[in-house]
Design brief:
The chain is α+β, with helices and mostly antiparallel strands. About 20% of the residues lie in helices and about 35% in strands. The strands form two sheets. It has a ten-stranded mixed β-sheet, with helices on one face. Strand 2 and strand 3 form a beta hairpin. The protein is globular and about 50 Å long. The structure holds fe (iii) ion.
Length: about 300
């Protein structure tokens, strides 16, 4: 069955692109791609032309999420399935594809998260010069796993999960269940990364995206970022280890006022043999060490 291969890129809307430029280079160690202009700040963190793009907008939220597929045929097959499931699929113009630095893409608004999801193939890869971090870090774990994960708010996590299973070929890794209430959180995979996409049920969500995670290749990179974010009073969730992907991470406020997570050391899964698991949402302390503030995070 045709399916999405990995999380490829993210578009971010903001009223303060200058603040994002400073934050991305000072804290994240990202490189500002030379093609950046007033319309798009392209941020590079590996051998792709960019992974994050910051656009001037009147919302502080994610604007679109890019999912990489293998080829044009797969993209068309997934577009047909999304249309069959009731989504309005739009084929991008050549200018839009050029802006994203991909060969071609289609997009639709996910009826659950209301996020614009883009399915693309053929990203621009830059062999040389290699990614040059803007601060002294080892770098990011990306490659076949994609650039990280995106967690979105939805009214109903079970309905959202079904859409991504049926339409884009994702698998459920695990659920957070609150006894008496039900399944409130769903973590989904499209490759060996424990989750590339997750949903939290929250009908009164303040925005579409809850947080975005980037994974470092070195724990020291997380540690030095943690020091920097504590000094700037940006930390919203302290350092800790997650119960499901077993990632050591912390959460901190980006210039748009929502959270990024920086992590290291997550376990990987085998999508071919994985069996769905669940965690009890009422476990004291959230079932993890550290991560103070996680249960109140919005
Ligand atoms: Fe996360």
């Amino acid at each position: 069955m045709a399916q999405v291969n990995r999380l490829g890129y993210l578009g971010i809307g903001t009223g303060d692109a200058d603040a994002w430029r400073g934050y991305a280079t000072d804290v994240l160690g990202h490189e500002v791609a030379p093609a950046s202009d007033d319309h798009a700040l392209y941020l590079r963190m590996d051998d792709h032309h960019h992974r994050l793009t910051v656009h001037p907008a009147d919302v502080e939220d994610a604007l679109y999420v890019g999912w990489e597929v293998g080829d044009a045929e797969t993209m068309d097959a997934l577009a047909a399935r999304a249309e069959h499931a009731g989504a309005q699929v739009v084929r991008a113009t050549p200018e839009e594809a050029a802006d994203r630095r991909v060969l071609d893409l289609v997009h639709f608004v996910d009826p659950h998260s209301q996020l614009r999801m883009e399915l693309y193939y053929g990203p621009e890869i830059i062999f040389t010069p290699p990614y040059a971090p803007s601060r002294a870090i080892a770098g990011y774990k990306t490659g076949d796993l994609g650039f990280g994960h995106v967690v979105a708010y939805v009214p109903d996590a079970e309905k959202a999960a079904r859409f991504y299973e049926d339409v884009l070929g994702f698998g459920v890794t695990d659920w957070i269940v609150v006894p008496g209430i039900g399944r409130i959180g769903c973590f989904m995979h499209c490759n060996a990364r424990h989750h590339s996409l997750a949903f939290f049920a929250n009908p009164a969500a303040p925005r579409r995206v809850q947080h975005v995670m980037l994974e470092h290749t070195s724990l020291d990179d997380v540690g030095t970022a943690y020091d920097m974010c504590r000094e700037r009073e940006l930390v919203n969730v302290t350092l800790g280890r997650h119960l499901n992907d077993r990632m050591v991470s912390f959460y901190f406020q980006n210039p748009s006022g929502w959270n990024f997570e920086l992590g290291w050391g997550a376990r990987e899964i085998d999508p071919d043999t994985w069996s769905v698991q669940h965690y009890n949402g009422l476990t004291p302390g959230g079932g993890e060490w550290g991560h103070d503030g996680l249960l109140n995070m919005t």
